[in-house]
Amino acid sequence: xxxxxxxxxxxxxxxxxxxxxxxxxxxxxxxxxxxxxxxxxxxxxxxxxxxxxxxxxxxxxxxxxxxxxxxxxxxxxxxxxxxxxxxxxxxxxxxxxxxxxxxxxxxxxxxxxxxxxxxxxxxxxxxxxxxxxxxxxxxxxxxxxxxxxxxxxxxxxxxxxxxxxxxxxxxxxxxxxxxxxxxxxxxxxxxxxxxxxxxxxxxxxxxxxxxxxxxxxxxxxxxxxxxxxxxxxxxxxxxxxxxxxxxxxxxxxxxxxxxxxxxxxxxxxxxxxx
Amino acid sequence: xxxxxxxxxxxxxxxxxxxxxxxxxxxxxxxxxxxxxxxxxxxxxxxxxxxxxxxxxxxxxxxxxxxxxxxxxxxxxxxxxxxxxxxxxxxxxxxxxxxxxxxxxxxxxxxxxxxxxxxxxxxxxxxxxxxxxxxxxxxxxxxxxxxxxxxxxxxxxxxxxxxxxxxxxxxxxxxxxxxxxxxxxxxxxxxxxxxxxxxxxxxxxxxxxxxxxxxxxxxxxxxxxxxxxxxxxxxxxxxxxxxxxxxxxxxxxxxxxxxxxxxxxxxxxxxxxxxxxxxxxxxxxxxxxxxxxxxxxxxxxxxxxxxxxxxxxxxxxxxxxxxxxxxxxxxxxxxxxxxxxxxxxxxxxxxxxxxxxxxxxxxxxxxxxxxxxxxxxxxxxxxxxxxxxxxxxxxxxxxxxxxxxxxxxxxxxxxxxxxxxxxxxxxxxxxxxxxxxxxxxxxxxxxxxxxxxxxxxxxxxxxxxxxxxxxxxxxxxxxxxxxxxxxxxxxxxxxxxxxxxxxxxxxxxxxxxxxxxxxxxxxxxxxxxxxxxxxxxxxxxxxxxxxxxxxxxxxxxxxxxxxxxxxxxxxx
Lengths: 274, 572
Description:
Order of helices and strands of chain A: HHHHHHHHHH
Oligomer: heterodimer
Number of helices of chain A: 10
Mean pLDDT of chain A: 90
Low-confidence stretches of chain A: none
Number of domains of chain A: 2
Shape of chain A: elongated
Largest sheet of chain A: none
Strand order of the largest sheet of chain B: 1-4
Radius of gyration of chain B: 48 Å
Strand content of chain B: under 5%
Number of strands of chain B: 8
């Protein structure tokens, strides 16, 4: 924990130092050159290229590029630093041209998705640990199938043993769909337990119609329902941990293409052009 | 049922489900088994190209025992997948448990990669369509162009390209398509591959696009002649900032020279080498300017802001005086001694704003003085007044006094010739009794200046204005003998329309402030007093403390037309 705090302090200090340095240098530039926006633009583009490269560094682990953990920290704080550069570059003004409005929106989407992703990446694992039942994301379908098969087997077996089809009917009516796939995605994201409570309540309602043997099976089914609900919770949160990248990474490439076009237009049409 | 709790406890921590941790589902691969979502992916998995490779659960091996010829096929299904199957291999050695084939699907990572490629391709397509489409100019424009550079006429300029909305007038790149844009980008100075040169590009340095400005705005002589180098047009005039007029230049642009000691030093040296006449470039355009001698060092003092260290106005710095020959006492006119319609005079009684409200109409005798200062020289006939203006006309009037009296008699209703002659004879006799002869009368009218000896004194009540104080021309004017034909020389009255010719001022915008808060007219007794406020007076409001704008462009315009300045808008 001490090491974590120290690392965070180090990175925050670096971010503050970089911000103060760039803001100071920009103030000098703005008075001495008409191309201050060019300088901030190139700096911003350079940092964005490095940030985009983070996704590629991870794909070539055999190159001695340092630990991925360090790169992630760099990615986060350099990403926040681009916010400073961006504001300096646009002088805090909303653009008026369509091309630049789109460019600003793309940057905004990448920045916001990154911040949301950071928030999710920091917060979701704690929630997953607190809830328990942790499981690799890719194993979830297999475990779900196992739970379903066990539940189905119990529901079928009890028909012959207890000579009653109450549980089997309840399974077919209420539990079959529940075990078939991931359920209650949004409820799990927002920590809403109502769907699980409703199901457990239905078991309680069913209880008075069950004989002793069936009640034992019902107990076991409720335990499986709880496990399945926990699995759905894992699925919902772990999927979200991956889904934000579906916005962040693809839009980053669009942003980079748009930025390259922006550079061509600026140099082709702006002050230095002949 | 005691074992079932009605509500799940949020703080319940579930145990991890049992699963084989040794297995790894290869999430970094682009494809995954189509049965994964059913929870039963095959152990082989799809090929890197996304083809299903499933055949059977194992590949049986033939085991032969010594002495036996046929041998026996043995199931090789791994233990983690259930171990050897119950039925065993087929007699021909084939596996008895074939794996149903699937349609492999992209893994999450693979789908993300495909989405990235698709979005990048879509972005590229949108850019190309936008760059080659008919609306490309409005798409790539950095913002609406100002009204100065917009419109049909502007789009027909010689530099424009058909359909380019006039972009080509300023942007050479707009003469072509994307290839031309690229070429223009890579020939820019400094180019996109030379970002290291950017810090050396100084403020105000002329650029390629500035030379295009000069195509329509020829020459660069619109500031002081001692400017050491041409200043970039686009540095001050920022286009694409919205409709309407361009925004005013920023102070940083002015201070890039006026706040820079070395540039001001160079300007000073250049100015010293120029003849004084080089600085007399302002076009009067019918207006009368108050001529302020150029300071010894020119306008090269280094300063940073108006409120802090902007030089004092030259009128006050050099203690200049109004050289107008008219004798006028503001203090007297604003005192209780002088009244109009029973009320004390106010500034606005004489100083009437012009149509724009920026300045004031010129003061004239007929409009502003005559009502009080009528030229009544004959107390008996106050209606009879010599003309104001040319001394020759005054002399002609005086030498035709019998005729003037006769006219006056006719205007008074006397129609009989004898009565008219009698009236004229009578008036001339009275005049002679007072002034002896015509020469004396002319001398008095031209040269008398003592208000206590008014020419119209003794006029009959009701026939003379209460303020008929015509003492003689010299009471107000500078009258000297020695003119042509023995006429006196009256020094022409020159009242400047503009006093601070290097700055703009709009009186209507300052109507909230009383005149006397800026102009100390009540204390001025001499015409020589120039009643302009000092810089300090302006800075009371135009300063950070005052809260009113103190930008350079609030008062100054960089451009001063040297001679006729015609836009050279040449059609294609």
